[in-house]
User: Which sequence fits this backbone?
């Protein structure tokens, strides 16, 4: 606009003294500045998409996912208006929901992290697309809905068994303890998948954590590795201590889908890359927000996996992890200190 204004002045007044032309040009610049300040660019009026983040509590894995989501949203023009923390408490969660409604926040999308946040907001915001992640065994929590989209926190059995073949070699017998009410479907689906990889699953059902020790003891000598799945009955502080202690005593490789359990003594975990999960969520958010007729994308598998290996455990139970060390997605624990 400024260039047009200057050209118009010069063309309209070709014989005007230069000093007067200079004043006119300065006035034109001032007029242009005032006009632009009073009438912003049309993109401002159009506005970008907005989102809010609600996390169940503050833990490292959730924080990584949220950072990835923030990073991805910045690149896609999605503005995050607020991040709420339910602090692992139902009453606090209800207070967060009340706060959002009282402040009349109307985000275009809600990103929920963890089962508490997702379960509580599902019924409260039926007209807003909800994108969830970090919900372990999500099928148990009835998270289906017209406005529900998610990223699974489970690593498929196929992916896990494929990686296991790289270091288990000829060892084919895998033990798993589970509560049928919690993870019966996971085990049922895993049996034929394991068979395709030449693995034989030895299963033991339990109804309480008190039965875990005897179930594991009955497997000793019959299995080459032990598989921990995200089962609320089996995965407790007390039972994990028993599993990890017995596995070290009998030099039994333990694999799971939690890097935290690896840091506690398990051999290896295959888990989602949490930062990448956040980036993936941002991409899915952009897809949802750019397609007004699409309010759900279903539940997707994580784009990227991370393998965590406990090198101390590998040394104790005499397992050669060199086949995995060259992979770019492997994290070694404890972290080697520079000499």
Assistant:
């Amino acid at each position: 606009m400024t260039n047009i204004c200057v050209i118009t002045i010069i063309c309209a007044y070709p014989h005007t003294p230069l000093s007067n032309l200079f004043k006119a040009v300065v006035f034109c610049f001032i007029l242009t500045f005032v006009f632009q300040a009073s009438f912003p660019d049309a993109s401002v009026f159009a506005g970008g998409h907005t989102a809010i983040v609600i996390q169940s509590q503050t833990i490292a894995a959730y924080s990584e996912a949220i950072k990835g989501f923030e990073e991805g949203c910045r690149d896609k023009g999605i503005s995050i208006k607020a991040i709420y923390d339910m602090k692992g408490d139902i009453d606090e969660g209800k207070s967060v929901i009340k706060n959002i409604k009282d402040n009349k926040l109307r985000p275009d999308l809600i990103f929920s992290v963890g089962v508490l946040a997702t379960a509580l907001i599902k019924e409260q915001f039926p007209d807003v697309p909800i994108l969830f992640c970090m919900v372990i065994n999500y099928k148990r929590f009835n998270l289906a809905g017209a406005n529900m989209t998610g990223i699974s926190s489970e690593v498929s059995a196929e992916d896990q068994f494929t990686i296991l073949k790289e270091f288990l070699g000829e060892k084919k017998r895998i033990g798993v303890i589970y509560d049928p009410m919690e993870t019966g479907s996971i085990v049922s689906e895993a049996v034929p998948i394991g068979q395709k990889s030449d693995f034989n699953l030895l299963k033991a059902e339990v109804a309480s954590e008190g039965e875990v020790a005897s179930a594991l003891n009955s497997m000793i000598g019959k299995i080459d590795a032990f598989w921990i799945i995200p089962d609320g009955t089996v995965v407790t502080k007390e039972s994990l201590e028993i599993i990890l202690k017995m596995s070290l005593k009998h030099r039994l490789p333990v694999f799971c889908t939690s890097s935290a359990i690896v840091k506690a003594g398990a051999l290896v975990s295959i888990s989602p890359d949490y930062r990448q999960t956040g980036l993936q969520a941002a991409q899915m958010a952009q897809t949802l927000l750019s397609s007004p007729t699409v309010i759900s994308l279903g539940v997707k598998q994580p784009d990227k996996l991370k393998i965590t290996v406990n090198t101390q455990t590998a040394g104790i139970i005499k397992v050669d992890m060199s086949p995995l060390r060259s992979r770019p997605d492997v994290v070694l624990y404890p972290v080697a200190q520079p000499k």
Q: What stands out?
A: The CA atoms of residues 123 and 145 lie 9 Å apart. The two ends are 63 Å apart (CA to CA).
